[in-house]
Write a structure and sequence with these properties.
Among the domains are: about 100 residues, Beta Barrel (Thrombin, subunit H); about 90 residues, Pdz3 Domain, CATH 2.30.42; about 100 residues, PDZ domain (Pdz3 Domain, Roll). The strands form five sheets. A seven-stranded antiparallel sheet has the order 7-6-3-4-5-9-8. The protein has 13 helices and 28 strands. It is α+β, with helices and mostly antiparallel strands.
Length: about 475
């Protein structure tokens, strides 16, 4: 026991100078500028995070939701499926509904009670309750639920009291290796603080939201932490904890947070009018690979090769051309199309930013004014009824705005299935939401009215052609 203690002391004393080199840098704010310095004493190494926690934890809340879940009754085996027996065993009774409870975390964004959390925390909730760190409870109303970013904004009424809030950190100023704290309510045990570092930036292949551009951290994040705060060592909100990579359901040190710059965009939308307002690229493209980079005269891969531009959209007005390579937005490097979408979405609508592009083996800078995706033509949603293969499907005219909502990037026109009623003919024949209807009985489908015309065509067979995930599928069957 004593020997072990001696070894520990010797390691601390003899290896202290070496250990300092491996420690994270301290963040020091001086004259509104942030500098990073290596710890120079044992006292600095032993500094506590308690002051940061005292400053930030009151603005992190627990969120409890209730949902109404429909529970289908199990089928009875064998002869008990006979209608005679079903009458007595209740199989003809409607499916039962039960209450389901879930939990998560949130962050107070404004002094008057706007709270940001994850969309998946409150999805389908019929009741939402917010519990502050001082144990006060409030009923919450849903203001915005934005599935594309997996963010939601709630409103509570604090009366005449001013609530503690977290100031937003510019998430572009963070660096890999910076210290961070994660605050939330894991597994419902109560408010919990964990520490770690920023493990990576600009993760675009996580797959939990349409706008993928996450901060990765090794600070322990577990179920219940969703919607909680990832904070910097000067007590600012760096991101909203959203997802973990795990095979067991628990933390293995790979967690992801939505950057504060995107969070601020959604919060600002809630403050201004309860509708998410974000910029739209107005183009489609592909990541520039090593082979493509060599052909374009670039020394390394990265950036987005412009493939198609929406006429009259922001990319068109900026002077972009097909074949251009977008290298940076506002001096922030673009690595793939997801990072381009994120950067454009965080530029306030109406504001100008600079695009750095590569054209004809030359680097150019173009002024780009952020704008929203237009809803042209209007959706004109129609629910199909009657004896047709599309009966039970809701159809809508595609527009850039609807394509963004459905994550159909670059599908700016045509007709799309937005919803399919369960057990309807359309569902039984395999039609799915996001299918783009190309033609019905030989009539090309450019608008919903074309579908109606096609369904009225005479003949002995039904023929419906759709595009799903880039592949063409055809239904051809007897009427």
């Amino acid at each position: 026991m004593n020997r072990t203690g001696s070894l520990r002391s010797a390691a601390l004393a003899g290896g202290f100078a070496i250990a300092l080199a491996a420690l994270p840098s301290l963040v020091v704010a001086q004259d509104n500028q942030t500098t990073r310095t290596v710890p120079v004493s044992q006292q600095q190494v032993l500094l506590s995070y308690s002051e940061v926690v005292k400053k930030t934890a009151p603005a992190v809340v627990n969120i409890f939701t209730k949902q109404e879940v429909t529970q289908k009754q199990a089928r009875l085996p064998g002869l008990f499926n006979d209608p005679f027996f079903k009458r007595f065993f209740g199989q003809n009774a409607p499916a039962r509904k039960r209450k389901s409870n879930s939990l998560g975390s949130g962050v107070i964004a404004t002094e008057d009670g706007l709270i940001v959390t994850n969309h998946h925390v409150i999805k389908g909730a019929t009741e939402i309750k917010v519990v502050l760190s001082d144990r006060r409870e409030f009923d919450a109303q849903l203001v915005i639920s934005d599935e594309a970013t997996d963010l939601a904004i709630l409103q509570i009424d604090p009366g005449n009291e001013t609530l503690p809030v977290l100031e937003f950190q510019d998430s572009d100023s963070i660096e890999v290796g910076d210290l961070v704290l994660a605050i939330g309510n894991p597994f419902g045990v109560g408010q919990t603080v964990t520490s770690g570092i920023v493990s990576a930036l600009a993760r675009t292949r996580v797959g939990v939201a349409d706008y993928q551009f996450f901060i990765q951290t090794d600070a322990a994040i577990n179920p219940g932490n969703s919607g909680g705060a990832l904070v910097t060592m000067d007590g600012k909100l760096l991101g909203i904890n959203t997802a973990i990579f795990s095979k067991s359901g628990g933390s293995i040190g790979i967690g992801f947070a939505i950057p504060a710059n995107m969070v601020q965009t959604v919060v600002s939308s809630a403050v201004e009018g309860n509708e998410v307002i974000r910029g739209w690229p107005g183009l489609t493209g592909q990541t520039l690979t090593s082979d493509l980079a060599e052909g374009f005269g670039l020394s390394r891969p990265g950036g987005v090769l412009v493939a198609k531009i929406y006429p009259g959209g922001p990319a068109d007005l900026a002077g972009l051309q097909e074949g251009d390579v977008i290298l940076a937005v506002n001096n922030q490097e673009i690595t793939d199309f997801q990072s381009l979408r994120f950067r454009i979405a965080t530029v306030p609508v109406g504001q100008q930013t600079d695009l750095k592009i590569w054209r004809n083996r030359q680097e150019l800078t173009l002024p780009y004014i952020s704008s929203m995706a237009p809803e042209t033509p209007p959706a004109n949603r129609q629910f199909v009824e009657g004896r047709t293969p599309l009966s039970g499907a809701e159809l809508a005219n595609l527009s850039p705005a609807l394509a963004e909502t459905l994550d159909l990037i670059g599908q700016w026109d045509g007709v799309v299935i937005t919803r399919v009623a369960s057990r309807s003919p359309a569902a039984q024949l395999g039609f799915k939401p996001r299918d783009i209807v190309l033609s019905v009985n030989g009539v090309e489908s450019r608008r919903v009215t074309d579908i109606e015309t096609g369904l009225q065509q005479p003949g002995q067979r039904w023929k419906v052609v759709v595009r799903r995930n880039g592949k063409i599928k055809t239904l051809d069957r007897k009427r």
